[in-house]
Amino acid sequence: MSNESDAIISITPDLALDMGYTYAGGLGVLEGDKFYGAAALGLNYYVITLLYRNGYVDYDFDENDNPVPKPQPQPRSFLESLRLADTYVVRLRNENVEVNAWEYRLGTAHAIFLEPRGPEWALKLTDRIYIEGSVEEKFLKYIFLARGAVEFIRRNIGLENVRYIDLQEAYAAMVPIILRIPGRYRLIIHTPGPWGHPSFPNKLFEEETGYRFIEDPVVLTSIGAAMAWEVIMVSSKHYDIMRKVIPQFINKARFITNGIDLNRWMDPEIRMLYEKGSLTREGLVLIKSRLKNELQGLIRSYKPVELSNGSFVVAWVRRMTLYKRPHFVARLIEEGEFNDVIFVLGGKSHPMDKDGLIYMRKFRELHRKYNNVVYVHDYDVNKAKTILKGVDALLFTPFPGWEASGTSFMKAAVNGVPSIASRDGAAVELITDGVNGWLFGSDVRELIDFVSNPRGKEIDEREYAEFKAKFAQVYDLYNSDRERFYLISLSAILSFAPRVDIKRVLREYYPDLVRG
């Protein structure tokens, strides 16, 4: 347990607690897992983010199955769980902006949600997560996060008490520009793809901070990495890829492979037996039957599909975007060779991601057309808990080189759900083919433009063939040797649980504060 002078600060654009809509995808969920893990370890931990009054995005569908985005207002229960911790003023656009700092506290861990209270233009900055009306609005949003976080730290924690300031992704890299103290920052890079490395015109920086950067536009990752004393990637492979993306900073870089909060994601009965050392294949089979029944309840709320004990149930569930290759599972379904498999599809797209919206429509069409397909268009943390425990296998299919880590396959594995995974992210560290899951495809360690580069199309086509062959192999194993299949499920739990535990992750991030 740490004392008050050992404050850990994590600044992030999104954060997924078990309530509220203050996240868009994997980064937010990971930061939520760190929050819950830090509370369990008794760390003096502050995660600072924004309070998005209208959340991220929800969807209706029109008569042609086109997804129609709409706001996602925060539930009253979430807002009522917050306590007003402080009110203060920051400067933005040469005006005073009032800030409310709301706190959700769990033991020694504090989740701080910053909200502008005026003037009118400032209220728009935190209306929605990752959804802005202009480049300037987007820029001001993250300047507001930086200034609001810095002022909160000064007023409520004290710089002299801060041990770490971790900047989650490039959007938080505005902080060192505002808080001009050297040697406190670490930049954690959560994605190799260009969307994770935003840039802004240098005139915006000059107007708002007085700095005149040489480059135009200014890349936030470069600023954050230059001003940090350490740069952290989130898997071994991600580190390897980023050596070619930011070679000028690699001498201060290392990797800490992501993990998950077992309390949050692991079925309590599985966890109890695992910790006692008494989890057996036979015991797991009984638990999996219960978890499948719980999944049945969720599925029925979307479609009257029955999960019999003999049916092989697989899931493709994640943020809907092209590099995660939703076309793999769509093509597998449409080719019609596995009509007795139940496919649970889930995920939504950013409203400006045209490809993501196309695949939302595609999944909706598959849901309507095929009796064995269920599409959960409003996939979220709580639905993920039911799906990732209740299916038999997970499909993890990112284009190689583009997934920094991935954690859905970890959440599945600790519940006895092995993955059929491409060789990407942390899957290459954690999955041994045929032992605790299955791997397909090639281990590409460079960023290939898979849309316009002919080589990308070749890799995609070759890997689809491998994916389909591997799926057929797992399907046959499930139907012909169920005992062997469940041994692989058991192996997934036993091999993943110690390695993906968020306590291991926090120990690697804060070795001087987390013992044992």
Describe this structure in words.
With 516 residues, the chain is an alpha/beta fold. The chain is built from 19 helices and 19 strands. The chain has helices at 26-41, 76-80, 120-123, 135-156, 175-178, 202-209, 220-227, 236-245, 262-265, 268-276, 281-300, 326-334, 354-369, 381-390, 408-413, 427-430, 454-480, 482-500, 502-509; strands spanning 7-11, 45-50, 58-61, 67-70, 83-92, 95-106, 109-118, 162-168, 185-188, 199-200, 218-219, 230-233, 253-255, 313-317, 342-346, 373-376, 393-396, 419-422, 438-440. A nine-stranded mixed β-sheet has the order 5-6-7-2-1-8-9-12-13, sandwiched between helices. Helix 1 (26-41) packs across helix 19 (502-509) and helix 12 (326-334) runs parallel beside helix 13 (354-369).
Number of E-type strands: 19
Number of helices: 19
User: Looking across the biggest beta sheet, what order are the strands in?
Assistant: 5-6-7-2-1-8-9-12-13
Stretches where pLDDT falls below 50 for ≥5 residues? none
Shape: globular
Supply Rg: 23 Å
What is the CA–CA distance across the termini?
A: 11 Å
Q: Beta-strand percentage?
A: 15-25%
